[in-house]
Design brief:
This protein is an alpha/beta fold and 244 residues long. The protein is 42% helix and 23% strand.
Amino acid sequence: MAIPRLLVVDDDAETRSMMTQFLRQNGFIALPAESEAEILTQLEAGRIDMILLDVMLGDENGVEICARLRRDQDVPIILVSALSADHQRMAGYEVGADDYIAKPFNPQLLLARVRAVLQRTQRSASLSYRRKIGTFRFGGWSYDAKLDEVLSPEGFQVTLSRRETSLLKVLLANPHIPLTREEIANAMDVTGDGSANDTAGRAIDVLVGRFRSKIEKNPKDPLMLRTERGVGYVFAVDVEVEES
């Protein structure tokens, strides 16, 4: 249930903002960047599941950046460019780009291509995650994915509802990443159709309150599932996985 984290790289502020907002509205965590230096900073800072990389970045060249990233990065890269001739596309594929989208593009087409590349590049990892029957350890607690069992630091079993367990799985897959209520709702499919709404957002608040009452020593001053002002929530503990 890890929410895909996409890095949108474009030196045009309006385009960057438009793409970022559109992707966030469709269930992704979208982060902005405008240079190779910012790409490297984001890669160092945390997990990035895909880079949407503009080819013409002022004085920088997206194709050359892609080639340098490919030396030690396996992150999927989609090149985005107004240059759409066959030889320009081939130049992108030859340096390791996973896809090439020509500007101007239909936002729904962009969304479809992003999802297709993620499915193609993460299929093995996703299947592995769904089959994982290991034990997740966090803040002294443990969650046995095979037995669907939660144990407190004192060794007592704590019963979680199906929804609370679903929330826990989202948190375990996204530690130290601030998540909006909408992102959590989308990852849990709160509305049942893959989209979140205002009611779902409020439902997340209620669910978080119940979850905190079971795992926090002081639910009113939580140490693990913290409120991130202006964003939503963050699971502020390290997560270790012991595979069976």
